[in-house]
Amino acid sequence: MNFQPLTPELVSAFEQIVGHQHVLTAHGVEAEIYADYGRDHTEDLHFAPDVVLRPANAEEISQIVRLCYEHHIPVTPRGAGTGLSGGALPIHNGVVISTERLNKIIEIDERNLQATVEPGVINQVFQEAVQAKGLFYPPDPASKGSCTLGGNLAHSSGGPKAVKYGTTRDYVLNLQVVLPTGDLIWTAANTLKNSTGYNLTQLMVGSEGTLGIITKVVFRLLPYPQQNILMLVPFRQIEQAAEAVSAVFRAGIIPSGMEFMEREAIAWSSDYLQIPLTLPEDIHAHLLIELDGQDLDELYKEAEQVYDVLGHYDVGEVLLADNATQKDELWRIRRNIGNSVRYNSVYKEEDTVVPRAELPILLKGVKEIGARYGFKSVCYGHAGDGNLHVNIIRGDLNDEQWNVGLRQPISEIFELCVKLGGTISGEHGIGLVQKGYIGIALPEVNLDLMRGIKRVFDPAGILNPGKIF
Ligand code: MLT
Ligand code: ZN
């Protein structure tokens, strides 16, 4: 790619737009903070941007992008940097645009069950703001306490509640976007239905910041489910835990959470959080099952049905969380598995996804491939969605084994997903680290269509270059 270097004149122009204190460089007073913008939560990767800009609004972003378009400077948009596929890494240096100052909840429209927000709002802050009004925004990635809604949109993030409520893309009605030419558009209308031309909104969602920079979002909301039941179910055989998942759905129950954790995942996370948890020797996996709704009696009836299903498997003593603190602890353990794995070792995370009932075959295949190639994996994830996070642990693998040797087994894992009717990412995106594998999931014809779309939106190829394909 033929980008131009950043000139001092351009840096001065950026200072005029965002203000001196919001231009960060390697040599500025905030050099340490600047360095953080070169990494995200993907492995141990780091790329140095030439400059980090922290604009305050859509108009400033539009002016910055227009200048970059005219001068052929690469631009990498960034939320909170919690991504797991390297989507926010400035691999061609250039400009990083952080949306952290676009952090206003502009309106919660209780009449229409909608909210208009800026992309830099933290997911959990938004959830709590709408909950205070009796409303519900379900997408809840593990990093909800720190990830931003803009980053969630970039990958159509999911989380445990996706199994019942869908992912980020299912809540978006309309987006304000700065295009890679600097033009500012709204993609649709604030309506629940829209049959007016191509769906630019859904094209933007999941495009990983390669087609535009989202500057405002209109979300639809739901009434908040007031009741829930949470149970932690221990299994003696890992395959049986995976099999029980689809059996629960076949019994007519749609849980609001159906999470799988193999023994090491739950053990590492509870150790990491220093939350004591008894794990009998013969337990090899757990399901964390949540039921939610407005009527507790109804939920207990559903829980009975779940128990009936579990009766067909070799399970240990089920823990039914009986107060808010216990529920919160169990969810904290689940949400911190990624952090605990990161704390224990450098790792690669593969975000495999298959039709739900194929999960047992996927899990068995992952372990078999690991045994054949000599790597250890810690698996967990959104089992109800057939979405298994496979964490390959670096352990004692040398550079050659880690950087080159794992390509073949990872390809085999992805080929197995595709063979089972699945694909190579359910919610973490392709970004940088999975782009070498995208051909396993998508034929050249599909990729050419996507490249064509990219060219239409971004003729100069400046926006988040080097990602997806
Ligand atoms: C999760 O489900 O925990 C996340 O998608 C993955 C992570 O944070 O490692
Ligand atoms: Zn996840």
TrEMBL record:
Keyword list, A-Z: FAD, Flavoprotein, Oxidoreductase
Q: Does the keyword Nucleotidyltransferase apply?
A: no
**Cofactor(s) for this protein?**
FAD
Recorded hits in Pfam families, A to Z, give:
FAD-oxidase_C, FAD_binding_4
SUPFAM superfamilies xref list = FAD-binding/transporter-associated domain-like, FAD-linked oxidases, C-terminal domain
Looking at the record's lineage, which domain of life comes first?
Answer: Bacteria
Q: InterPro entries of this UniProt entry?
A: FAD-bd_oxidored_4_C, FAD-bd_PCMH, FAD-bd_PCMH-like_sf, FAD-bd_PCMH_sub1, FAD-bd_PCMH_sub2, FAD-linked_Oxase-like_C, FAD-linked_OxidoTrans_Type4, Oxid_FAD_bind_N
TM region(s), chain numbering: none
Per UniProt, residues of the FAD-binding PCMH-type domain are 45-224
Q: Which PANTHER family match?
A: GLYCOLATE OXIDASE SUBUNIT GLCD
Q: What's the name of the protein?
A: Dehydrogenase
Organism (species): Hymenobacter cavernae
Q: Which gene encodes it?
A: glcD
